[in-house]
Amino acid sequence: MAKDTLQAPRGTRDFYPEDLRIRSWLHDHFRATAALFGFEEIDAPVLEHAELFTRKAGEEIVEQLYHFELHDRHLALRPEITPQVARMVMARRGALRMPLRWFSVPQCWRYERMSRGRKREHYQWNMDIWGEPGIAAETELIASVFHLLDRLGLAHEDVKIRISSRALLEETLRGTVLKKRPEVFPALCVVIDKLDKIGAEGVIESLCDPAGPVVLPETDARFVVDWLQLRDFADALKIAQPGSAAFAELARLFDRIDDYGHGDRIVFDKEHTQGRIMRHLLRSAAPSRTSAACYQG
Prior knowledge:
With 297 residues, this protein is of the alpha+beta class. The protein contains ten helices and ten strands. It has helices spanning 17-36, 50-57, 82-91, 136-151, 166-174, 185-192, 195-208, 218-228, 233-239, 245-259; strands at residues 40-41, 47-49, 67-70, 73-77, 100-104, 107-109, 121-130, 161-163, 266-268, 289-296.
């Protein structure tokens, strides 16, 4: 047997008993926290139709998928579970009793450059509330994350959650730079989601690309990027539309988190409207959904 075949494929790992004990300990805390907050566990196949993922993130995600064609079917290992959860909800939409409170700890695969603590094979603690249009869902999800951190023994001041609002972003842009072209907002979100990877100038270039899906003037593209980098509630209020319902809702969220005793552990951060680990709060699709992707590793 060749030496290389004695090693797990690059980006994956073996779990020997001592390693699996640690993983099981952590996942047990996920499950205990979710149960305490009234969530039920679900799962879906690791193997999925590739179109389910490209539909959400575009064809370019194919480069990050473990995918193949078999018997005229384009299949992929799931890079995340969120599109699968949406599929499950839509498949039984008329039979499910809302609101839904589901969680999962799925094994996921994403072929991308590895970083410290993040391999191509990873697990994710995912919690979803469907059918709750108000901010109660967001508040409860944030509280559950902090409950987990306290269970794990992290000091109160060691972790903060950065919070933003897709609704505030959409409301602001539809009232300004997208006033005449509101239909390109979803495509714009795909572009700004790359801010951490390609930087502000890269996002501006993509937003202005005449062959791209958005095609903004450079001034408008810079307005979008500058808005994403706001860190102060007062500055956001200056840019928000008059009588902004989205801003009022976000202010109520901060007030309710403060009632939970976690007001000093959350930070307003517009850059992460489309953020991921420990910072994902995104409402999308009907019936309304709120999710927290709280861990990946």
